[in-house]
Design a protein that fits this description.
five-stranded mixed sheet; globular; binds glutamic acid
């Protein structure tokens, strides 16, 4: 079996040298409940977690940034609160998550601290990635944590999430997080080693698919339902997750997390399914800003700001001479050059009222004017796209 896996991966890598976990700059790793929590005891699978954390420490030592999206809160909480077997009512799973999340975060923190890595818990609700203002907040916080060298451990905030307002499964959450942090690789660790042409549990002729160069409707039709008892995601949600992440310029891998060292196995060419992205996270984000967002206002720039933007810099309040329209933080605005030409679009870090108050001022004056210290930039360079440049 391992031989076959190595073989298929070797041919994958020949065709796609970019699909190498060790080369990714920022990696999101999704860890399912059924990997982390032992079904028989409801406790953390310690030796597995320790081995995984050693691999994460090695990735960090290589300079790679790692975000973990881990399930397991509800499964752990059930045991902690002595809850009965069988399906839980909404308020019961919320209660289980509240108790289990403490144990979950503690387990990661304890295990990664032996490699001198700091864990930061981030609990997200659907609106944190679907509403632009909250999206920017979550993005900034996660990026700051990564810059500070921490390993964010993300989960859905199950305690407040109800059916209508939840991601529902951590595959989709992980894809949204990959999009949020502009990750270049998303690894979905699962209880299956990747995608097959049919359900391998049912069809002995099912063929393993090591590489998906294009996520077509035919490929999506291959997905069956989850067979694992604990997590919510199945192959269907993994493919939805893959579509979201690919759209954000992120390579995706589905790999077998049941191995003792799943990340090491991937690095060594072990069996997994790679989905190939067609653009970088930066290009995907710029396309999103340029194409799908209607500007709700505009900022008039002075000549200095125009030159700075053309040189790839961010827009500072000092370079803005006027603010038009009404917009919220995170809304798209047009950037107007002194000659009246629209230079591009960007996401404003301030509301229109705030932008009008700080226009023409130095960034060091922002806190004095607004009464709180926001970002130095009115539009960060990652959040703007210039036309014809
Ligand atoms: N957020 C849930 C938990 O931590 C799991 C969701 C899933 O299994 O995908 O228990």
């Amino acid at each position: 079996m391992p031989g076959r896996g190595l073989q298929s991966m070797a041919s994958t890598q020949e065709r796609h040298p970019g699909l190498d976990l060790t080369l990714a700059r920022r990696v999101v790793i999704k860890i399912g409940s059924s990997l982390l929590v032992e079904a028989s005891t409801g406790r953390i699978h310690r030796s597995w977690l320790e081995a995984l954390c050693e691999d994460i420490a090695r990735m960090r030592a290589r300079g790679q940034q790692v975000v973990l999206v881990s399930s397991g809160a509800i499964a752990l909480g059930r045991r902690i609160l002595n809850m009965s077997e069988g399906s839980l009512r909404l308020e019961e799973s919320q209660a289980a998550a509240a108790a289990g999340q403490v144990a979950l975060a503690h387990a990661y923190s304890q295990t990664l601290s032996s490699s001198n890595l700091h864990v930061a818990q981030v609990l997200l609700t659907l609106s944190d990635t679907e509403q632009r203002r909250r999206y920017l907040n979550a993005r900034n916080t996660l990026k700051t944590l990564l810059d500070l060298g921490a390993v964010p451990v993300v989960n859905e905030n199950d305690t407040v999430a109800t059916e209508e307002i939840r991601y529902g499964d951590n595959d989709r959450l992980a894809a949204r997080v990959a999009q949020l942090v502009s990750a270049d690789c998303l690894v979905l660790l699962s209880d299956i080693d990747g995608l097959y042409s049919a359900d391998p549990g049912v069809d002995p002729d099912a063929k393993f698919i090591p590489l998906v160069p294009e996520l077509t409707p035919e490929i999506e039709a291959l997905a069956g339902e989850s067979r694992s008892g604990m997590g919510r995601g199945g192959m269907v949600t993994k493919l939805i997750a893959a579509r979201i992440a690919l759209g954000a310029g992120c390579h995706v891998a589905i790999a077998n997390g049941r191995l003792e060292r799943p990340l090491l196995a991937m690095e060594q060419g072990g069996r997994c399914t790679w989905f190939v992205r067609h653009r970088s996270p930066a290009a995907a984000r710029k396309q999103w800003i340029a194409g799908s967002l209607k500007p709700l206002g505009s900022l008039q720039l002075d000549e200095g700001a125009r030159t700075a933007l053309l040189a790839g810099k961010s827009l500072l309040p000092a370079g803005v001479t006027a603010v038009q329209g009404e917009f919220e933080r995170g809304d798209a605005v047009a950037l107007t050059a002194p000659d009246g030409r629209i230079l591009g679009h960007g996401l404003s870090a301030y509301t229109s009222a705030e932008a009008a108050s700080i226009a023409g001022c130095q960034s060091s004056e922002i806190a004095g004017i607004l009464g709180y210290s926001g970002r130095d930039e009115l539009i960060h360079r990652d959040d703007l796209v210039l036309f014809g440049v």
